[in-house]
Amino acid sequence: MMDEWKLEVLTKIRLIDHEFELRTHDIFAPPESLGHIETAEGSYPLGLPSDGKYITESDGKRTTIRAAGADGPVIAAWRIRGHDRETIAETFDPTKRQVINLIHARVAVIVLSSPLVLAKTRLVSLHYASMKPLAPPALAARANEIIASQAP
Predict the structure, then answer these.
(1) What angle do CA 3, 5, 6 make, to 5 degrees?
(2) Dihedral angle sign, alpha carbons of residues 38, 100, 131, 71
(3) Total domain count for the chain?
(4) Which pTM value belongs to this model?
(5) Would you place residue 108 in the very low, low, confident or very high pLDDT band (cuts 50, 70, 90)?
(6) How many CB atoms lie within 10 A of CB 120?
(7) Residue 140 falls inside a structural domain
């Protein structure tokens, strides 16, 4: 049972350029827990207009969400190590209620996840959030520089 498993998690979050976060989680899990736990890590939430419209782009390793409109805020997440998929969540409420934020009628969050299958697991991801985002080519270039600087 879950309440009998002891997991140890060492987390390191590095703030880069005030808009990027490089997140590393080292997870140590008992062998009997493997295959029974799903890891999940969320981006910053992106406030959406009441119609809930947003634009997504994904290349399999990176997902970017932009509020509808060319000049809106942006969030992005890159899977560097350990996470095997990404999804976009608009609610975490089992009733699927979406109006959960007092400021924004709707929100979207990029969720990186994977099953925990190794006793020692390292998860590494890069996250970006900005109200005044970099242009897409500059954002991609800076993210690639940060990712390339990481040791394998």
Answers:
(1) 115
(2) positive
(3) 1
(4) 0.87
(5) confident
(6) 9
(7) no
